[in-house]
Amino acid sequence: MYFRPEGKAVAADVIPYYKDGVFYLYYLHDYRDAERCGEGVPWYLVKTKDFVTYSRPVEILPRGGKEDEDLYVFTGSVIEYDDTFYLFYTGHNPHLREQGRPEQCVMLAVGSDPEHFHKTDLRYFAPDTFEPHDWRDPFVYREGDHIAMLLAAREKEGPFLKRGVTVKCSSRDLVRWKTDGIFYAPHNYYAHECPDLFRMGDWWYFVFSEFSDRTSTRYRMARSPEGPWIAPPSDTFDARSFYAAKTVSDGRRRYVIGWDPTREGDEDYKPRQWGGTLVVHELVQNADGTLFVRCPDAIAAQYDRELPVCEVSRFGDVSKEEGAYTLRKGGYARVMFGALPRNCKIECEIRPDECGKDFGLALRMNETYDLGYFVKFDPVYRRMCFDRNFRPGDVPFMIDSERPLGLKESVWHHLTIIVEGTVAVCYIGGVAMSVRMYDYREGGLGIFANECGASFRNIRIFCKEDDLQA
């Protein structure tokens, strides 16, 4: 369901493009096997019509050699212009810095269709007003009678961690470019990676990723593509495990696609790595112009076989009436159900009754409730977070991921959790949270309340027909 190349390889930054019913997902292909495959990163391509089934990945733009600017073929964009496809990308080579040469520049490949490209001689380097080694991630789009480009760059002066800017460039032939100036400069981040710009209704949206604050993909909104850009109260689409996301539309719906990073050694709480598994959300606009996300219909619809939900045990002050479980405030209460399939969709409705510490769902929890994961809702801190048992040493909590979320008391809220192998994606109230679950691969579903009153109803588990037959 969530694409990742076979073997050791992972997918990083997705460059999506849509044409004639097909989503072309170009991505940075990290072999994760330098000894056998050598250094460097090429672009690969997978195609999909529904974000459920994907074509076989193929190399679309090879990496260069150790002396070339594009040893690492990094992020860019694709645009069709006068029946020609222009693929702009970042040439990156860290070895060039040792030679006194810029390690990044904008490069170009062209083709007659979106699946075949050849490289050109274009080398567009940073002007002297910007740092020479940070000039990357070209996003190219039409603007009136010319073509515009947004780039991730850094100013030479100012606090080192806050020099990130987005630069705007322009061209009339897609070959000769001039730097027009700064497009966005909040002086908050090291860099604004993977810029993206689109319009939805009466609003314009500027999307970028930063790794100096929360390692997140963020968005800004404005009535004009020239700004001024507004930071909404909740300016992210997902948690830390969703990075370098870009958007794409089929003319009816818009999707945002990022990657959920793997972890060193495939172990919980080990450092996150560059690249991983692709995760897709649908973007929806609120009446005030702010954006929220939901699970794409095609993904949710794959889980079409409902499984029985059988209660196994209870603990604490728990009652059940007309199919709804009520866990009362005053200590710890929980209900355990049967084992979860490796791949599944969990749906339920939750209601905070008496705000207290936290409540939520347990995933892949063992029978004694000692080992497993928690999706927690924390009314005091107004957040949804991901946690686990058992924690190493004297550690009261180790929050893996969290999202701001305020749930109204005495109101039912719908929760959907998609679990695919080590990836889990939670959706509630327009908020998404992607996480990894490595250490525990088996276990049951549970509900709990910790010094908090909460109710749960319509608890359902679904799997895919293919998984059921397997």
Molecular structure report:
Helix content is 3%, strand content 55%. With 470 residues, it is an all-beta fold. β1 and β2 (22-30) form a beta hairpin.
Give a short account of the largest sheet.
Answer: 8 strands, antiparallel
CATH class of the largest domain: Mainly Beta
Whole-angstrom Rg: 23 Å
**Strand runs, count:** 34
Name the structural class: mainly beta
Structural domain tally: 2
What name is given to the CATH topology of the largest domain? Tachylectin-2, Chain A
- Within CATH, the superfamily of the largest domain carries the name Glycosyl hydrolase domain, family 43
What low-confidence regions span 5 or more consecutive residues with pLDDT below 50? none
Beta-strand fraction estimate = over 45%
CATH architectural category of the largest domain: 5 Propeller
What is the helix tally? 3
**Could you estimate the helical fraction of the residues in percent?**
under 10%
Name the shape in a single word.
Answer: elongated
Mean pLDDT: 94
Distance between the termini: 16 Å
